[in-house]
Amino acid sequence: MESHEFGQRLRAWRCQLNLTQGELAERAMVPRTVISAYERGHSSPTMGTAAKLAAGLGLEGMGDLFGPTPTETAEAVSERSARRGGEVAS
């Protein structure tokens, strides 16, 4: 994953949870400036920092940080349903 892609994903999760960079920094125990750098695509986290960020976001694991946000998942399901004529897959 490219730095800018990770940054976009991190910001999406953070905003989805209505957290400021400062609040996430406190929860994840990393400097706010580091979160800012990630979100601007200036750098990528180490595995250890990614794990801290995932924990700070309340995710079950660091893999969730790299996957779709709940909003992205809901949008995908909605689009799929619309393409199928409104049927919801079970």
Task: Give structural notes.
The chain has a single domain (3-83), classed as lambda repressor-like DNA-binding domains (434 Repressor (Amino-terminal Domain)). The protein is elongated, with a radius of gyration of 15 Å. 66% of the residues lie in helices and 0% in strands. It contains 6 helices and no strands. The mean pLDDT is 87. By secondary structure, the chain is mainly α.
Order of helices and strands: HHHHHH
Mean pLDDT: 87
Give the CATH superfamily.
Answer: lambda repressor-like DNA-binding domains
Summarize the amount of helix as a percent range.
55-70%
Number of domains as seen in the coordinates: 1
Strand content: under 5%
- What is the CATH architecture descriptor? Orthogonal Bundle
Radius of gyration using CA atoms only: 15 Å
Estimate the global geometry from the Cα principal axes. Answer: elongated
- The CA-CA distance between the termini, in Å, is 31 Å
Can you tag this structure with a few keywords?
90 residues, mainly alpha, 434 Repressor (Amino-terminal Domain), 6 helices
Q: Care to give the gist of this entry?
A:
By secondary structure, the protein is mostly helical.
Layout of helices and strands, plus pairs?
Blueprint: H1 3-16, H2 21-28, H3 32-39, H4 47-56, H5 62-66, H6 70-83
